[in-house]
């Protein structure tokens, strides 16, 4: 038998593509074209024993599906503008409507969208039911290991259990993050077999390990404007948010979002520091003046008390340890030392030694070189019937639903292109 389509990988992107390639109602709703019902034979091959394993873990089990806020920093790719040829500011509505088409009510939490049930399993079950309704075959526990174009332009797909033939192939193998949930770089070896260049996967959306010893800060959370800088203090990225301190690393959404840039710089051999402004609402001169006033009004109070007016007490202790001063009372500090104190709070610096490993990352940076992908259809520009979608592409989003949006939108584009094909 020759399938119309074989999809490698039953994650969000692969299942979306399979459904959009077969579903007349979805085609009509989203393509706004007259019904041209097609019967497509589709097989999905998934190496995990269950479909959508990673989806269950998304958004801490709640599945942050999409986000209404959209800016140029939402996606990273070596091909800088490629993501924005694929996805646009209003596409969160398409993703939400797609979920609703599958029977999942979606609700808005300040622009972050989740299934109304707040259960990621709701999404997986909805995918599962639609795959069944559309008579899409699913082989789980089977690994795609090779693919080859035949002389008649069909493809032979080899798995660890046999081989299959198809007119169209969708590669939806995801990235290498979270191997316990299916993360692998197997997709890159399939790209390799097709002669498609790719960037090897590296962890992103992850903690950053730092050189400084800060066991005393474990468990502290603090809002900060975080700047990623190189050795010459050139700014590479900046974001405001809550930093979480662990024994040896910095974490939190703001750090996750900066981990792509930091990881890329480390890979290029650059030294990377994170400069934390713990009081971004006050400029350094005003902070210094505040400390002077504090010294005048409260000469007997401790340095710790002076700092603690602005930052968490454990951060105050840490900052004073870095200063290595013998003085204990604020009256014992001179103006230069007060200036240094203000400087420490505005520019608390940590030196990044590594990103967390793939097992602790939410996504991978790297993947298929997108210069070889048509952004309208996600089709390879050099092979007529092969599509690459989702995290296997060299595009990764920041936290907040952007990666699932990417998986669904790229899956829809590939699926509709296959639905349209003769
Ligand atoms: C803990 C965690 C929480 C997250 N939370 C969110 C969130 O709330 N919002 C958000 O937008 N993003 C989130 N993400 C990221 C998001 O889940 C992924 O970017 C997205 O699921 C990628 O979809 P995909 O279909 O491209 O890849 P995947 O979901 O990784 O699916 C790829 C599938 O292909 C299978 N596969 C791989 N190789 C083969 C092969 N050779 N043969 C057969 N099958 C194969 C894999 O087993 C896997 O099931 C989170 C990620 C993690 C790890």
UniProtKB/TrEMBL annotation:
The protein, known as: Aminoacetone oxidase family FAD-binding enzyme
PANTHER family assigned to the protein according to its UniProt record, in alphabetical order: OS12G0638800 PROTEIN (PTHR42887)
Instruction: Describe the location of the RsdA/BaiN/AoA(So)-like Rossmann fold-like domain by residue ranges.
Output: 4-415
Q: Which residues does the UniProt record annotate as the domain RsdA/BaiN/AoA(So)-like insert?
A: 202-363
* Alphabetized UniProt keyword annotations: FAD, Flavoprotein
Names of the cofactor(s):
FAD
InterPro entries listed in its UniProt record: BaiN-like, BaiN-like_dom_sf, FAD/NAD-bd_sf, RsdA/BaiN/AoA(So)-like_dom, RsdA/BaiN/AoA(So)_Rossmann
Asked if Flavoprotein is a keyword of the record, the answer is: yes
Q: Which Pfam families match?
A: HI0933_like, HI0933_like_1st
Q: Which residues form a coiled coil?
A: none
| Bilayer-spanning residue ranges | none
């Amino acid at each position: 038998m020759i399938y119309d389509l074989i999809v490698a990988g039953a994650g969000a992107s692969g299942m979306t593509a399979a459904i959009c390639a077969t579903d007349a109602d979805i085609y009509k709703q989203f393509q706004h074209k007259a019904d041209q019902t097609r019967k497509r034979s589709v097989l999905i091959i998934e190496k995990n024993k269950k479909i959508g394993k990673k989806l269950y873990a998304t958004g801490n089990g709640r599945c942050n599906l999409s986000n209404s806020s959209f800016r140029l920093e939402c996606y990273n790719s070596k091909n800088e503008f490629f993501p924005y040829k694929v996805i646009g500011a209003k596409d969160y509505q398409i993703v939400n409507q797609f979920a609703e088409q599958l029977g999942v009510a979606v609700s808005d939490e300040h622009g972050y969208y989740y299934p109304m049930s707040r259960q990621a399993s709701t999404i997986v079950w909805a995918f599962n039911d639609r795959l069944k309704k559309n008579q899409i075959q699913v082989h789980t526990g089977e690994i795609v290991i090779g693919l080859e174009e035949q002389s008649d332009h069909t493809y032979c797909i080899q798995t660890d259990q046999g081989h299959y033939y198809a007119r169209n192939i969708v590669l939806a193998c995801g990235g290498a993050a979270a191997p316990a949930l299916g993360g692998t770089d197997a997709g890159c070896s399939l790209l390799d077999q097709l002669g498609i260049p790719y960037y090897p996967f590296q962890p992103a959306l992850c903690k950053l390990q730092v050189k400084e010893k800060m066991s005393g800060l474990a468990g502290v959370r603090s809002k900060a404007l975080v700047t990623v800088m190189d050795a010459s203090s050139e700014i590479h990225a900046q974001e405001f948010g809550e930093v979480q301190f662990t024994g040896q690393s910095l974490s939190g959404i703001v750090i996750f979002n900066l981990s792509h840039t930091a990881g890329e710089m480390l890979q290029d051999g650059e030294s990377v520091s994170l400069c934390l402004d713990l009081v971004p609402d006050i400029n350094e001169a005003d902070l210094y003046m505040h400390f002077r006033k504090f010294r005048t009004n409260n000469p007997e109070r401790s340095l710790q008390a002076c700092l603690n007016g602005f930052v968490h007490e454990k951060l105050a202790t840490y900052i004073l340890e870095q200063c290595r001063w013998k003085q204990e009372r604020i009256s014992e500090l001179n103006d230069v030392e007060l200036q240094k104190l203000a400087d420490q709070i505005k520019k608390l610096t940590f030196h990044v030694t590594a990103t967390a490993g793939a097992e602790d990352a939410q996504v991978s940076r790297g993947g298929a070189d997108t210069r070889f992908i048509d952004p309208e259809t996600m089709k390879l520009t050099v092979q007529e019937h092969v599509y690459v979608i989702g995290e296997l592409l060299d595009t990764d989003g920041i936290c907040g639903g952007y990666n699932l949006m990417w998986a669904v939108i790229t899956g829809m584009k590939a699926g509709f292109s296959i639905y349209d094909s003769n």
